[in-house]
Design goal:
Oligomer: single chain
CATH architecture of the largest domain: 3-Layer(aba) Sandwich
CATH class of the largest domain: Alpha Beta
Distance between the termini: 76 Å
Strand order of the largest sheet: 2-8-7-6-5-3-4
CATH topology of the largest domain: Aspartate Aminotransferase, domain 2
Helix content: 40-55%
Order of helices and strands: HHHEHHEHHEHEHEHEHEEHHEEHEEH
Low-confidence stretches: none
CATH superfamily of the largest domain: Type I PLP-dependent aspartate aminotransferase-like (Major domain)
Number of strands: 12
Structural class: alpha/beta
Mean pLDDT: 93
Strand content: 5-15%
Largest sheet: 7 strands, mixed
Length: 468
Amino acid sequence: MERRGRLKHETPDRIAAALGRLVEDFFHPPALGRARPPEELARDLILDVPAQGMDFAAIEQAVAAYLDAGFRAQHPRFMNSLSSRSHEIGLLGDVLGAVVNTTMATYESSPAGTLVERALIAKLGRCMGYARCDGLLTSGGSMSNLLAMLCARHRAAPDAKRRGLSDGPRLVLFTSDQAHYSIASAAQALGLGEDGVIAVATDALGRMQPERLEEAIAAVLARGEKPFLVVGTAGTTVLGAFDPLAELAAIAHRHGCWFHVDACFGGAAALCVEGKTMLAGIEHADSISWDQHKLMGVPLSCSALLTPHADLLGSAVVAGDGSYLFHNDGSGLDAGLKSLQCGRRIDAWKAWLLWLYLGDAGYEARTRRLFDLAREVGEAVQRDPRLELVFPVQSFCVNFRAVPPPGEDAAAFTLRLRERLMSSGIACLNYAMTKGTLHFRWAITNPDLTPGDVESLLADVVAEAAVR
């Protein structure tokens, strides 16, 4: 029999050393980075695979080129998304999951990961007021929302799991006109169609109006269709608005609807006293989605779906014969029996290790700091007559713009200013069109921002806006 040589590998100490250099460099970045056109970026990246492979030194160079290719989320001027600087302890947990490299589908393959995830889900549920909590971690908030909507569909039309949605009245769901786009995407994935999603009007601050929800449900009932789900939002993507959850829960349950709360962004408000008041009524939700990779400093991605309805998630999801894989009959330990994913990373480690490190007190201080920072940024904008606070600060988002020159279109001016800020490496700043106004959105997700960081960034925005 032909003897084959060992496949190409690197020693663990060399990998560890390279990882240490990478982490040291990335957590102490000299610059934010800048927006680069794809044709320029392609010249610096290695985008062709060599026939004979590359040595480790060349691999390190490829990694360095990749890190220099875009913006560094750890930098204080990265304000583009709802997640930014991840915590070093979370990174340790992320690496641990990669090193262990087993799936969360079964207890056999990941016994410690299974127990840690169950403990994390229970802890998150208690934060939301659930006495008992089922659930699991998912690949992100969109998947968490999809699973919640699948549970709602299963309760409203249990035969749909076997027969599809061919029978009975059309199922219709209701959500805010400021809701995340994943709600509509999940609706079409579940066979409901985008037309099965009713966008309920919000008030001036972007909060769903209960009276408009009542009207929308009445209109659907009058058409002979079946309301089955109301989706509230705790922390909208742009305005950071919190819907009146207690009122929405009462309306949903009065009409026999499942009540889901998309708290992917704002769920961390539950970690401090101030935020808990904003989440009043969330304990009445039939399900909650909550991203730990947003305000909690956990590396992407780590999202939880929570529900007080024991075993409903499993009955909604499981189909087909998986007996070749799942052998812990009746124990409830095989998390793959309530997930749309079979292969699933051990994301619980990074969230759990970071919580152990910070403790409840540390997370309360972190969350309160983010609330305070958002207020401070909003106040700094209001102090400068060359800037405009477009919407009041409600939680963790500051929506503002530079005042355009007289006679100049404000939206076009804002877009040009953003392009200069991004291409010059001054700031990585997002924008949105909300209620007819185009503006910058600064998501306050980095608790290490200082007053100096805020003042210098706004000063640079003002200075760049003055350039002709």
